[in-house]
Design brief:
- 65% of the residues lie in helices and 10% in strands.
- By secondary structure, it is α+β, with helices and mostly antiparallel strands.
- The chain folds into 2 domains: 212 residues, no CATH class; 163 residues, 2-Layer Sandwich (Alpha-Beta Plaits), CATH 3.30.70.
- β4 and β5 form a beta hairpin.
Length: 422
């Protein structure tokens, strides 16, 4: 029986994690509200199960409501923070707290009614409402403290485990769910006289759940997020999105900040988005590489064939860029014949390989009207090895671009100097 309960315990954790992470991963298509609603709708069930539903496991007696679903909710809040920000994370926490305060207020008012028993044995259980209401408020207050604590601890651990995101995820879960177990057990002991043995059994179950969620988080990080599975930037197309002003507004916003000639983002858009991309990569413990390229002797192309033909060359270069870039990367026209690519989650060696592939592709496929190959010079720099801000990394990449030009052009220069020559 204990082994079967443990199997169900794992199945519940895997099912909860898979569903919630799917909603989080595709939030740009489905809307973040779907994830937040699913996160909050389970709260009453979690509290009820934690108060009254216990099963025998190999390491003691525990409740799936507390060990699986509440633990899972806290880990989901940390994942939401990793992919969004603190301002977004506070929304479900405040919503749950206000909603549960309202629940207690309603339960208190309902006790003033004189109720009628419509069928024998089905009278309103006001004591149940009272107990569950206060447990829900206490559980939500703990969730508020847990959420603040898990975010602050995650950031503090970044000083020592900067690129160990999975280890930080696990440690945060172990520490904060231990704190939560102490706080919530105190309420169960006060309201329901739960024995002390349940504290240790529940704690072991939560620690086991953290292990399961850490494994699932590692799989997600390695095979989904780092695998560049595209989530799409637009919401699901349906009859409503075609009729809403917000859809039209988002479409207009998407088209602003575009270079008219090449269709890539312009320098103003770069100055808004690129610093955010660098900060987010560093916050997640990942590298971010900036690649800056310049078309060699482009003035000669304009002088010899005219500006219209020069424009066609620039369009051809940006087309090759678009074919090579990943969905998570961004390309910006920096000015004239210079372009900047920002590649989050990319270390320096990967950035050099990407730059060389780009250099080779352009040199072998883009030509002037008389058949002369068009070449580019490229500088590569990586955060945080070359700086912790976009401006510092861009400056390092720009300096290396200058070195590439001095080295004969049609080459890639990285941190160690001339890395790849054409």
């Amino acid at each position: 029986m204990e082994a079967f309960n443990l199997l169900l315990f794992v199945v519940e954790a895997v099912g909860y994690f898979t569903l919630m992470v799917t909603l989080l991963h595709f939030r740009h298509r489905l809307g973040l509200g779907v994830f937040l609603t699913a996160l909050g709708v389970m709260h009453f069930m979690e509290t009820y199960l934690a108060a009254s539903f216990y099963v025998a496991l190999p390491f003691g007696v525990a409740s799936p409501g507390s060990s699986v679903f509440f633990a899972g909710k806290l880990m989901m809040i940390l994942m939401l923070y990793l992919q969004e920000d603190a301002a977004t994370v506070r929304q479900p926490i405040y919503g749950l707290l206000v909603g549960n305060l309202l629940t207690v207020a309603i339960a208190w008012i309902l006790q003033l009614h004189l109720t009628i028993e419509l069928s024998p044995g089905h009278a309103a259980d006001l004591n149940f409402l009272r107990e569950m209401g206060w447990l829900m408020v206490w559980g939500t207050a703990l969730l508020y403290l847990d959420s603040l604590g898990i975010i602050l601890l995650y950031e503090r651990l970044g000083r020592f485990l900067k690129r160990k995101v999975i280890w930080r995820f696990m440690i945060c879960g172990l520490v904060l769910l231990t704190f939560d177990q102490v706080g919530f057990f105190g309420a169960l002991y006060y309201f329901l006289d739960v024995p002390l043995s349940a504290f240790w059994d529940g704690w072991r179950a939560k620690m086991f759940a953290v292990g399961v969620y850490t494994v699932l988080f590692a799989i997600y990080q390695v095979y989904v997020r780092r695998g560049r599975v595209a989530t799409g930037a637009r919401s699901i197309s349906d009859v409503f999105s075609d009729l809403t002003f917000r859809e039209r507004y988002n479409d207009l916003l998407e088209r602003t900040g575009r270079d008219v000639l090449t269709g890539v983002y312009d320098r103003a858009r770069m100055e808004m988005e690129a610093p955010v991309m660098i900060r987010e990569s560093l916050r997640l413990g990942q590298f971010a590489t900036v690649v800056i390229l310049d078309a060699d002797h482009f003035k000669d192309v304009n002088d010899q064939f005219g500006h219209l033909q020069g424009d066609e060359v620039l369009k051809a270069i940006t087309k090759r860029l678009g074919n090579i870039l990943r969905s998570s990367d961004r390309i910006f026209r920096f000015g004239g014949e210079e372009f900047v690519a920002v590649c989050p989650g990319t270390d320096h060696d990967e950035g050099l390989l990407f730059a060389e592939r780009l250099r080779w592709t352009i040199a072998t496929s883009v030509r002037t009207p008389d058949g002369t190959p068009v070449t580019v010079s490229i500088g590569v720099a990586t955060a945080d090895e070359d700086g912790a801000s976009f401006q510092s990394v861009l400056t390092a990449a720009d300096n290396r671009l200058y070195q590439a030009k001095k080295s004969g052009r049609n080459c890639v220069v990285g941190r160690s100097g001339l890395v790849i020559a054409g």
